[in-house]
Amino acid sequence: MPSAVQQDPGPPSMRRSLGVKDGVAIAASSTAATTSIGIGMGTLAAYAGRQTPALLLLAFVPILGIALSYARLNRSEPNCGSGYTWVGRSIGPWPGFLTGWVVLVGNVIFMAYTGAVTGSVVLQFLNKLGLHSVWGLRLDPASTGISTAVGLVALVVVTVTAITGVRAATRLQMGLLIFEYAVLLVFCGYALFVGDQPFSLSWINPFEIGSLQAVAQGMVLAVFFYWGWDAAFSVNEETRNSTDAARGGLIALVVMMGLFLVGALAFQRVMSTGELLHNGPQALTFLGGALAPEPWASLPLAALMCSAFASLQSSVIPTARGALAMARDRTLGPVWQRVHPRYGSPAVGTLLIMAIAALLAVLAVGIPKLNDMILTAVNSIGLTVALYYGLTALACAVRFRDSLRAGAVRALRDVVVPAASALALFGLGGYLVWDYATMSDHFEVSPDNGWFMLLLPALFILAGLATAAWAKWVRRAPYFRTGQGTDADAITLPMDGDGAPLPNPVEG
């Protein structure tokens, strides 16, 4: 009796095991509301003063438009490359590649910076617990070397959890989020009632902000506060239903807006503008000390530590999947495309991203100028965020432009809101370029030199164009050749009559 012929199962694929809660966990962790509130409110207050809550509300408007654009595009084409794929198909492969490139490079640099920040927060918490040295080594949070070493340990841990299963990683993130948000809401809610700074309706009036320049500069920073919710769309090929990623991202974004407002109002009820500026990155720790005795006063610092850890992990996950989508189109090398047969995750790409971020962090310890470059890149990352968010929203307006003839509701949802949001971010980005170009009269490798602040994003884009040229003419990537923006081998889903993917069955 002839033996049955075994069919080749093909290369391993990512597993559809995630739901809406997982998307919320990834998006919320990547946005890192507690970290932004804990160390960034003082910076916002430098531009907006007591109108910081108004600025956060104002910045939410275009970001919501961008999020709706992501959701609409995801409904028609779920792809872990998200903006890279959608912009490539709708506008063209060159802007599409740049969208994926700036996300990839920006996240790696952000991870190199966040690793050291995470290490410093961990050391602060250990000092609070009374542990100041180990084996004769002083655990000094102000030491760049020690903070980076602890941060590298954290980076390895989050990478392992990201490789061994994104489902387990999101469960860990959800646990961290529940703890940090509970602490944040308890302390900030209490501050709203017992603070001695009188509340004023002008706090939520953006017209009270001192100048148009302050509004624009503060808006760019506030947009950066919201950055990260789109990480939910990086796992849209691992969700049980293609719409779960969109719902998770939108829920997380609305929650972030609420937390930012509560945090901003609470800080202003307890601190004057001068005190908020003075405390700066230690504002959340100051709030805890002002409202409660030890050990309860250390809870906000513990929440900040959880937020930094979760943010680090949630940066690894979408970056590896974006690189996978680019490798699938052969715009990056095949090493980024390898999916682990057991864990169903892009394991090799995840390890490479961790290694690059770790190398940057280590080099920054020994090369002060490199540390300045990383800090400057983080400060100027708002430019690249405005670029790729704006391009993705514009892709939505271009792709669904026929909706202009399909009624007012569809025209607003598919074209008008995305186009207006894109123009708003392009305008903010253009203003920031002008501001950086005119704020300095000489070049200096310094985080506060405008010309240097412009140089790094420009180098990112030039490097991206060079890599795109290599992919087009040397790799002969189909991404550039087909005119459709993506490889024919990319994952596609059956569509219903309205052009939306049919629900996917849950894998056993």
UniProtKB/TrEMBL annotation:
<dbReference type="GO" id="GO:0055085">
    <property type="term" value="P:transmembrane transport"/>
</dbReference>
<dbReference type="Pfam" id="PF00324">
    <property type="entry name" value="AA_permease"/>
</dbReference>
<feature type="transmembrane region" description="Helical">
    <location>
        <begin position="146"/>
        <end position="169"/>
    </location>
</feature>
<feature type="transmembrane region" description="Helical">
    <location>
        <begin position="94"/>
        <end position="126"/>
    </location>
</feature>
<protein>
    <submittedName>
        <fullName>Putative amino acid transporter</fullName>
    </submittedName>
</protein>
<feature type="transmembrane region" description="Helical">
    <location>
        <begin position="415"/>
        <end position="434"/>
    </location>
</feature>
<feature type="transmembrane region" description="Helical">
    <location>
        <begin position="245"/>
        <end position="267"/>
    </location>
</feature>
<feature type="transmembrane region" description="Helical">
    <location>
        <begin position="373"/>
        <end position="394"/>
    </location>
</feature>
<feature type="transmembrane region" description="Helical">
    <location>
        <begin position="301"/>
        <end position="324"/>
    </location>
</feature>
<feature type="transmembrane region" description="Helical">
    <location>
        <begin position="24"/>
        <end position="48"/>
    </location>
</feature>
<keyword id="KW-1133">Transmembrane helix</keyword>
<feature type="transmembrane region" description="Helical">
    <location>
        <begin position="176"/>
        <end position="194"/>
    </location>
</feature>
<feature type="transmembrane region" description="Helical">
    <location>
        <begin position="450"/>
        <end position="471"/>
    </location>
</feature>
<keyword id="KW-0812">Transmembrane</keyword>
<feature type="transmembrane region" description="Helical">
    <location>
        <begin position="54"/>
        <end position="73"/>
    </location>
</feature>
<feature type="domain" description="Amino acid permease/ SLC12A">
    <location>
        <begin position="33"/>
        <end position="471"/>
    </location>
</feature>
<dbReference type="InterPro" id="IPR004841">
    <property type="entry name" value="AA-permease/SLC12A_dom"/>
</dbReference>
<feature type="transmembrane region" description="Helical">
    <location>
        <begin position="345"/>
        <end position="367"/>
    </location>
</feature>
<keyword id="KW-0472">Membrane</keyword>
<dbReference type="GO" id="GO:0016020">
    <property type="term" value="C:membrane"/>
</dbReference>
<dbReference type="InterPro" id="IPR050367">
    <property type="entry name" value="APC_superfamily"/>
</dbReference>
<feature type="transmembrane region" description="Helical">
    <location>
        <begin position="214"/>
        <end position="233"/>
    </location>
</feature>
